[in-house]
Write a structure and sequence with these properties.
- The structure is a single chain.
- By secondary structure, the protein is mostly helical.
- The chain has one domain.
- It is elongated.
C-alpha cells in the first residue's frame, strides 16, 4: 500500500436524522406553508421535497423508504387537519 492510498479520505455513511427530527421537520414545513398562506405548496409531495432538502436527505428518501413513505404522508395530512380544524395534535400522536 502506498502512502497516497492511506491519505485517501475514508468514506462515511450519511446519517439519517432521528424519527423525531424528521417528524418535527414535516410538521414545521406544513405549519410554514399554512402560516404563509402558501396553499400551492401544501401537498405531501412538496412538503416532503422541502424537508428532504432541508435535512439534506436524498431527493427520493420519503418515496423509497418503506418506513417513511406512508408515515410521512400521514404526518402531513394529520398536521393539515389539525391546522384547519384547530384540533389537538395529541389526537394523532398514537397513530404514528
Amino acid at each position: 500500500m502506498s502512502s497516497s492510498d492511506s491519505d485517501a479520505p475514508i468514506p462515511t455513511r450519511k446519517r439519517v436524522p432521528t424519527d423525531t427530527a424528521i417528524t418535527s421537520a414535516l410538521r414545521a414545513a406544513v405549519q410554514a406553508c399554512y402560516t404563509n398562506d402558501d396553499e400551492e405548496n401544501l401537498t405531501h409531495k412538496r412538503i416532503r421535497a422541502t424537508v428532504a432538502r432541508n435535512l439534506k436527505l436524498a431527493d427520493d428518501f420519503f418515496k423509497t423508504s418503506d418506513k417513511w413513505n406512508a408515515k410521512s404522508k400521514q404526518i402531513v395530512l394529520d398536521e393539515i387537519v389539525c391546522l384547519y380544524h384547530s384540533c389537538p395534535r395529541s389526537m394523532f400522536v398514537d397513530s404514528h
